[in-house]
Specification:
Shape: globular
Strand content: under 5%
Number of domains: 5
Helix content: 40-55%
Number of helices: 27
Oligomer: single chain
Number of strands: 9
Radius of gyration: 27 Å
Length: 506
């Protein structure tokens, strides 16, 4: 069993803690749980002893106050930066964040906590979810106990895109309990701690195991990259070139939808229902999903899981991907226009020839290697006769949709109102940043007003209940107000505020 050189003294509390070694691939959360088990104190006492805060040690994905931890353990766990990047999930998310923002995030978690971190990392908007389930491999746990004397959570298994054990090629098991992580007052450890239900990740067969093992391997390598080391615009060019080399995109960078959708569905067949991989279900007949969002000329922000799915499909080895990225960063790759993979010999004349020969605008565009929008533009420039398709999304409907979105209406409801798909409304929002910002602001104010009225009605209905009792009522909305509208709580509910105090209510 591995120990530190000795206990650490806590003069203010006149206590000492026996500390285990932090294993190279152990999560900080798992280590804190082991400290708690070895010393027998309460969960909040353990957390205060390590971090100076009652609940920080219980944060299993993004704990803060790492400078305090380093000081209280005498630096025996290593530098705060290494702890953050190698023993929490920050190492997985920061490679895609701009280097300045990544450094700001690190400094925030070194010296304090960052409640809005998941918002800053784009996790909340990714549709993948921010509830990072604890996962592991039973065989690895057995080996841990033989080697170290205790089983622990392995950091690589906690990455959102890791669903199988790379070492033993078997599905991971998820430790599930009905209590959300922020409300836990103890530790979920592999072989001890709070009660949990084990759920095995559903995997159909060996082909799916192969795919998921590759994704897990790439995920572990991805998490070792330096913060801010990947640029989404450069990644988009890397993806475009790889798609072009496989015949899934044109020389101009336009996606060959039919071929791409077929290839994506074939490659990931059988794992669309794996927890977290539901984004693969977005690959539909008119939307290529991963590639459509990440490989466009102006790519959308993407969760690391989505990038890793696309990388694993396009590159047979991680080193091949890194080489492609470095090549795109080279002077020759940087000055080349996006999607310019080869010389073009009078493409507009080629297009004209196809139309004159009887091809439709869409067919001529595909044959020439350009998108239909470009084909329509060329047809107008050349004066070529064609029959325009009836626009389902007319200007009148666009104006109505814009008005509704500006007022904060739900995107799905707007789609039904104007008679188009929600994908069309989502594209409208993503292509107009001013409209999207106005919509988000209006949605926030609408949600805030609804939450305020709901919580006030709850208080009127149960005037005799304490705050603690009110918060046990399902869908009470208290935590949303605390996080997003704390000033309103302080001004309008002074009696409640006096009971809970200004500290974190969790």
């Amino acid at each position: 069993m591995l120990y530190c050189s000795g206990p650490i003294e806590q003069p203010s509390r006149r206590m000492s803690l026996n500390l285990p070694k932090l294993v190279a691939d152990q999560t900080l959360y798992s280590w804190c749980g082991l400290v708690h088990a070895w010393n027998g104190s309460s969960a909040t006492s353990t957390s205060r002893s390590l971090f100076g805060s009652p609940y920080t040690a219980l944060m299993h994905d993004f704990p803060g106050l790492l400078h305090h931890l380093a000081e209280r353990t005498g630096g025996q766990l290593g530098e705060p930066r290494d702890i953050a990047l190698r023993h929490t999930l920050l190492g997985y998310f920061l490679p895609l964040v701009h280097v300045d923002q990544a450094e700001n995030i690190l400094q925030r978690v070194f010296t304090g906590t960052m409640p809005e971190l998941k918002m800053k990392l784009g996790i909340a908007a990714s549709r993948i979810g921010g509830h990072h389930h604890l996962k592991g491999c039973a065989v690895c746990f057995d080996n841990d106990e033989e080697t170290h004397g205790f089983a622990y959570w392995h950091i690589d298994d906690q990455l959102p895109s890791a669903m199988v054990c790379r070492k033993h090629r078997r599905p991971l098991v998820i430790a599930w309990d009905p209590v959300t992580p922020v409300h836990r007052r103890g530790w979920l450890l592999p072989r001890s701690g709070l009660k949990r239900k084990w759920i095995e990740v559903p995997v159909l067969g060996e082909e799916q195991i192969d795919r998921l093992t590759t994704v897990a391997e790439y995920s572990a390598r991805f998490a070792t990259l330096a913060p801010g080391s990947l640029d989404s615009r450069v990644l988009a060019r890397v993806y475009q070139r790889a798609l072009h080399s496989q015949g899934l995109a044109t020389a101009k960078g336009s996606l060959r939808l039919t071929a791409l959708i077929k290839a994506t569905r074939s490659h990931f067949r059988g794992i669309e229902s794996v927890p977290g991989f539901e984004s693969l279900q977005a690959v539909t007949g008119d939307w290529p999903g991963l590639a459509g969002a990440l490989a466009r000329r102006q790519p959308r922000p993407g969760h690391p899981l989505k990038h890793l799915l696309l990388i694993s499909m396009l590159f047979e080895a991680w080193e091949e991907f890194l080489a492609a990225y470095e090549d795109t960063l080279s002077p020759s790759g940087e000055v080349a226009p996006t999607g310019a993979f080869g010389p073009q010999v009078c493409p507009i004349e080629t297009f004209r020839g196809h139309v004159i020969a009887g091809s439709s605008i869409r067919s001529a565009s595909i044959k020439t290697g350009v998108c239909t929008t470009t084909g329509l533009k060329w047809a107008k420039q050349l004066g070529l006769a064609y029959t325009p398709r009836t626009k389902v999304f007319s200007d009148e409907k666009k104006n109505l949709a814009r008005t509704e979105l500006m007022s904060g209406a739900d995107a799905g409801a707007v789609a039904v109102m104007v008679g188009v798909s929600q994908v069309t409304i989502n594209r409208m929002l993503s292509s107009d940043l001013d409209l999207k910002q106005a919509w988000c602001i209006a949605r926030f104010y609408t949600t805030r007003e609804r939450r305020r009225k709901h919580f006030q009605a709850l208080i009127r209905k149960h005037p005799q209940l304490t705050v603690k009792a009110l918060r046990k009522i399902p869908n009470n909305g208290y935590m949303w107000l605390y996080r997003h509208d704390r000033a309103w709580l302080a001004q309008n509910l002074p009696s409640l505020w006096a009971q809970i105090g200004p500290t974190n209510p969790d």
